[in-house]
C-alpha cells in the first residue's frame, strides 16, 4: 500500500531529526516550519526542554513583502540570529524537518549564518 505525501513527510522529518540528535553534543536545535504562507523558527534547548528564541513572519515587523518568500525567510533568519545572540547562543544545529534544503529554507539558513549563528 502506498504511503501518502503526509506520511512520507513525517517519516523524512523523524529521520532528519534522529540523525541530527546523534550529532548534537548539547547544542540547541534551530527548528524550522514552513507553510504555504509563512515560515517560523524556534531555537530549542532539548536538554532543558524549552524554547530559547523564536521568530516568524506572523510578527508585524517580519511580515511578507509581496510574494517573495525567500526575502521574508531571510528577514526571519536575521531576526533569529539576533535573538539567539541575546539568549547567549552562538552555535546550534539546523533541523529542517521534512523540508528540503532549498529555496526559503536555504535563504533562512544563509541569513542566520550571516547574522553570526554557526551551524
TrEMBL record:
Domain of life: Bacteria
Keywords: Ribonucleoprotein, Ribosomal protein, RNA-binding, rRNA-binding
Keyword Transport: no
GO BP field: translation
GO molecular function, one term: 5S rRNA binding
SUPFAM superfamilies named in the record: Translational machinery components
One Gene Ontology cellular component annotation held by this UniProt entry: cytosolic large ribosomal subunit
Role description: This is one of the proteins that bind and probably mediate the attachment of the 5S RNA into the large ribosomal subunit, where it forms part of the central protuberance.
Protein family: Belongs to the universal ribosomal protein uL18 family.
NCBIfam families the UniProt entry points to: L18_bact
Assembly mode: Part of the 50S ribosomal subunit; part of the 5S rRNA/L5/L18/L25 subcomplex. Contacts the 5S and 23S rRNAs.
Protein name: Large ribosomal subunit protein uL18
Organism name: Tranquillimonas alkanivorans
Upper lineage: Bacteria, Pseudomonadati, Pseudomonadota, Alphaproteobacteria, Rhodobacterales
Gene name tied to this protein: rplR
Amino acid at each position: 500500500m502506498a504511503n501518502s505525501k503526509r506520511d512520507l513527510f513525517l517519516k523524512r522529518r523523524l529521520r532528519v531529526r534522529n540523525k541530527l540528535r546523534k550529532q548534537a553534543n548539547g547544542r540547541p536545535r534551530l527548528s524550522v516550519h514552513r507553510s504555504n504562507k509563512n515560515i517560523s523558527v524556534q531555537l530549542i534547548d532539548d536538554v532543558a526542554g524549552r524554547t530559547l528564541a523564536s521568530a516568524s513572519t506572523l510578527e508585524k515587523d517580519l511580515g511578507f513583502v509581496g510574494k517573495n518568500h525567500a526575502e521574508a525567510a531571510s528577514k526571519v533568519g536575521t531576526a533569529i540570529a539576533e535573538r539567539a545572540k541575546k539568549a547567549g547562543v552562538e552555535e546550534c544545529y539546523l533541523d529542517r524537518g521534512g523540508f528540503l534544503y532549498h529555496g526559503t529554507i536555504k535563504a533562512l539558513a544563509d541569513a542566520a549564518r550571516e547574522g553570526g549563528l554557526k551551524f
